[in-house]
Amino acid sequence: MGPSKIKKGLAGSALIASALLTVSHSVQLNSGKLNTESVTRIIQTGQIPVTIVETIDGDTIKVKLNGKVETVRYLLIDTPESKKPGSCVQPYAVEASKRNNQLVRSGTLTLEFEQGAGRDAYGRLLAYVYEDGQSVAETLLKEGLARVAYIIKPPYKYLSIYQDDETFAKRNKEMIWSKTNYVTNWGFNGCVE
């Protein structure tokens, strides 16, 4: 492992450790939202409470973590583009963004990090995102608003679950899976007319 990978890994570990140390502080700040059962689940799963700042699109949000605003890119999923510079708005992009916004604002928001997956090439944190303990990515996959993607450094804890969710949506021809040849290995084909 090269020095840059070690440095990135240590930086990611430091961020996670710092966040875990502030769980008790976050719980005090959000005492109206979190009960003892929620706190126990968060600690057992390694999920870190955060506060939503902004929904960027279907698979990216901004959160407040340890007093700092961070952009978070959801691990292992991809939704159609609605705000990518130089790209058109793709079918189901607006629906994915709206649904993501609805999900992340309905309860207690937490992040879970994957070993070895710190940040992407754009500096965004890579994480699993939960609302009241429910995976936001799983909901988007099951509803046909996302595809499984960016399997860069396996193994991943939830890859097989996500693939099952995607298969469910495909079988039922939900949203992105209702259009023939719309979903590709590299993203999505077409623009909103």
Care to describe what's here?
The protein is of the alpha+beta class and 193 residues long. Helix content is 35%, strand content 22%. A 5-stranded mixed β-barrel has the order 1-2-3-6-5, surrounded by 4 helices. A two-stranded antiparallel ribbon has the order 4-8. It has a two-stranded antiparallel ribbon with strand order 9-10. Strand 6 and strand 7 form a beta hairpin. The longest helix is centred in the N-terminal third of the chain and has 19 residues, at 3-21. The chain is globular, with a radius of gyration of 17 Å. Residues 1-11 and 19-32 have low confidence and may be disordered.
List the topology elements.
Blueprint: H1 3-21, H2 23-29, H3 36-45, E1 48-55, E2 60-65, E3 68-74, E4 77-78, H4 93-104, E5 109-112, E6 125-131, E7 134-135, H5 136-142, E8 147-148, H6 159-171, E9 183-184, E10 187-188
Parallel strand pairs: 3-6
Antiparallel strand pairs: 1-2, 1-5, 2-3, 4-8, 5-6, 6-7, 9-10
Helix pairs in contact: 5-6
Q: How many strands in all? A: 10
The strand order across the widest sheet is 1-2-3-6-5
* Rg, alpha carbons: 17 Å
Q: Provide a count of the helices.
A: 6
User: How far is the first residue's CA from the last residue's CA?
Assistant: 48 Å
Report the major sheet: 5 strands, mixed, barrel
The helix-strand sequence is HHHEEEEHEEEHEHEE
Coarse shape? globular
Average residue-wise pLDDT: 85
